[in-house]
Amino acid sequence: MHPIGFESHDHRHCIAEGVSAAEARCAEEGLQFTPVRRRVLEILLEQHRAMGAYDILEVLRAEGLGSQPPVAYRALDFLVSHGFAHRIERLNAFTACAYPGADHAPAFLICRLCRTVAEASAAPRAQLDKAAAEAGFLIERAVIEAEGLCPDCRNAA
Amino acid sequence: MHPIGFESHDHRHCIAEGVSAAEARCAEEGLQFTPVRRRVLEILLEQHRAMGAYDILEVLRAEGLGSQPPVAYRALDFLVSHGFAHRIERLNAFTACAYPGADHAPAFLICRLCRTVAEASAAPRAQLDKAAAEAGFLIERAVIEAEGLCPDCRNAA
DNA sequence: AGAGGCGATGTTATACTATATCAACCCCGA
DNA sequence: TCGGGGTTGATATAGTATAACATCGCCTCT
Ligand SMILES: [Zn+2]
Ligand SMILES: [Zn+2]
Ligand SMILES: [Zn+2]
Ligand SMILES: [Zn+2]
């Protein structure tokens, strides 16, 4: 799957789809899409970048939605555990899922200059599955993150 | 390349090779393989597991080699930046390189029960390179980490 | 209506991970 | 001998994450 994040696109679509996919899944599964959770997802969806929990907390605090770390971490845990957002291990940060609703094994391309995060899906996972199978290892979660320069920053440099 | 770490093997060989590869490279490149750096590498080499900086610091402290966090972090930075050890992002921890001397793009299989870390090399990286190339992204560093159950823990469960 | 359960939130405190900063030291070469 | 680069010592602080417990709202069962 082609990575989403670098190329210019109708980003309102990403936002709308991200929110509505979450809404739908929560309705289906009886999960509570509370104001804090919705707002945190919206904040993440505003751009294809990774944000730290404390960055998000700052926004919540300014809006009166919560002021202590657990508020942000709980919302993020909810979003991540249900696949509406992903944790970027390399940055200790979070980003909205670019393929909400799809069952997928994400891989990320992280620009170290503009911090844009593009999400690719599936393909890079295949070889890892193969290596794991050979070793008798059962993969429960895979972290695939590449750090470098996005096309724009590459051209600028 | 077949992952190193799960299967039983002559582990003294891993230790000896890890230390001597580092020794050799440091001699070649005029780097200082100081007592703290050597000892930290030895600690990491003792088992195919990831250790946190503070775990390592505890050992150093007990041996009188240093007692403050920067001591451990500096040694680890040195080892990682020269490829003698790797950082495991998923665990905020470190492990000795299983292919010292080889120019390689590591991928890790991390057991969530016994914390054993096996290092595979090269193959899982290919698809990621492909996805990146298509997107015009320049990879400078890739993190490929799978978390799950190793063969032993799988059988035990 | 009242009791109880459950999940979400509020709040405080604390644990864990990592780095900035500056002083001291050591080795080596000018 | 003097200086410079790199390493170490030591203090302080920044940044990330969770434990623990009180409270609240909502639904359900009696
Ligand atoms: Zn977008
Ligand atoms: Zn996704
Ligand atoms: Zn070994
Ligand atoms: Zn295991």
From TrEMBL, chains A, B:
A single GO molecular function term of this UniProt record: DNA-binding transcription factor activity
GO CC, any one term: cytosol
Cofactor: Zn(2+)
This protein's record includes keyword Transcription regulation: yes
InterPro entries linked: FUR (IPR002481), Fur_C (IPR043135), WH-like_DNA-bd_sf (IPR036388), WH_DNA-bd_sf (IPR036390)
The name this protein goes by in its record: Fur family zinc uptake transcriptional regulator
Coiled coil: none
GO BP terms: negative regulation of DNA-templated transcription; regulation of secondary metabolite biosynthetic process
